[in-house]
Amino acid sequence: MTETTTIARTSEPAVLVLEDGRRFEGRAYGARGRTLGEAVFATGMTGYQETLTDPSYAGQIVMMTAPHIGNTGMNDEDMESARIWVAGFIVRDPSRVVSNFRSQRSLDDDLAEAGIVGISGIDTRAVTRHLRSAGAMRSGIFSGEDASLTAGEQLDLVRAAAEMTGRNLSGTVSTQEPYTLAAEGERVGSVAVLDLGVKTSTLRYLAQRGFDVHVVPQSITAEEVLAMAPDALFFSNGPGDPGASDRHVDLLRTTLRAGLPYFGICFGNQLLGRALGFGTYKLPFGHRGINQPVLDKATGRVEITSHNHGFAVDAPIEGVSDSSEGFGRVEVSHYDLNDNVVEGLNCLDIRAFSVQYHPESAAGPHDANYLFDRFRDMVLASKETEV
Fold it and tell me: Which 3 state secondary structure label does DSSP give 283?
């Protein structure tokens, strides 16, 4: 597309309906029709393309709190996966002009082509305040013929939709076939990456640290992982309730007992918490955006980090705990300064650690990029011990 493209706007009606009965009327945006999902808000000022293509947003209707969205268009380079994953998209002011030298097409075109039903022209500040008070909830966007449904019919459809609690979405977003990215530069070893909704940038950062990255489907068994003889295991980010992923918890316990070094992010942090014997719980409205302040307890440094999670690990922030599953001592390594939510776990007697945020930092800050180096160093130390 040209560097500057003007987009015609529609006046077709659309409505956002929340399960508590609140309604917000606006204009149709993207595809027309009906979509249902959990309404959440993302606070990033930039990075809407990375948000849209992050598999962790599967099943969610995402609202951007930044008012002006779409001005830089879309391109192939910044895709975090092969498709858009959000269930729906909410913006206040979609850009009337796409103007960026990297743009290949407009956001509007990609949303329509992917069949993503959206809404624009609503007071996103009011919706955000409501979700912060009432919590994330089921919702629906209705446009086209579905906009003519009665308010009662629309609300009934929203309330009949599945809740996020108890949902296992890993099978929806995971690769169906294994594939490999070759190590870049000096080879360190190999890492098996359990694809629970992994982002492209995560794989790229692992390869840049010298790992042959073997991406495997979420359906793989612990025996199959160990038969690959990787030097380490990595659990990715992903959507859904960690409490509904018992099989992945069992897989992780088996591989940890076999001595495989482990690094997990986001969903992988929650699954490590469960594997160690901690519980998980649903946050009222979650953390989504690229500006979350997290304290690294080891250094006292405050990192500004990229988040996308609606669940968290239930573990004590202070002190050292003993794993009820026999993995020794565990400490919370990081926590969120906004609400004291656990943002990282560090095992003191086995080679395993995890963080709740996105250290690959696509479209976000780079404060936590060192965690990939830490993982590399842990694997190298493990190999030296074996020798």
Answer: strand
Q: Please work out, in degrees rounded to the nearest 5, the angle formed at the alpha carbon of residue 113 by the alpha carbons of 112 and 118.
A: 25
Tokens linked to 24: 């917000």
Q: What is the mean pLDDT of the chain?
A: 94
10 Å Cβ neighbour count for 226? 15
Q: CA distances (Å), 51 to each of 11, 83, 311, in order? A: 26, 11, 18
Alpha helices, H only, the chain: 48-52, 107-114, 124-134, 151-160, 170-173, 200-208, 222-227, 246-257, 267-276, 370-386
The 3-state DSSP class for residue 246 equals: helix
Give the pLDDT score at 174: 97
- What crossing angle do the helices spanning 267-276 and 246-257 adopt, rounded to 10°? 70
Local structure of 120: helix, strand or coil? strand
**Nearest CA among 310, 335, 361, 313 for reference residue 56:** 310
CA dist., res. 353 & res. 378, Å (int): 10
Would you state the pLDDT for residue 358?
A: 84
354 neighbors 361 (Cβ within 8 angstroms) = no
Q: pLDDT, tens digit, for every residue of 13-59?
A: 999 999 999 999 999 999 999 999 999 999 988 889 999 999 999 99
Taking a C-beta distance cutoff of 8 angstroms, is the pair 35, 121 a contact? no
Residues with Cβ within 8 Å of 271's Cβ and at least 6 positions away in sequence, in order, are 235, 242, 245, 248, 249, 252, 264
Please choose, from the candidates 170, 187, 165, the residue with its C-alpha nearest in 3D space to the C-alpha of residue 311: 165
Strands 262-265 and 232-235: parallel
Catalytic residue ranges = 266, 358, 360
- Residue 307: name the closest of 330, 328, 277, 338 by CA: 338
- CA 346 centroid distance within chain: 21
C-alpha–C-alpha distance, residues 183 and 227, integer Å: 20
Q: What is the pLDDT of residues 91-120, one digit of tens each?
A: 999 999 998 899 999 999 999 999 999 999
- 366 has pLDDT over 70: no
User: Residues for the chain: how many in total?
Assistant: 387
Give pTM, 2 decimals.
0.93
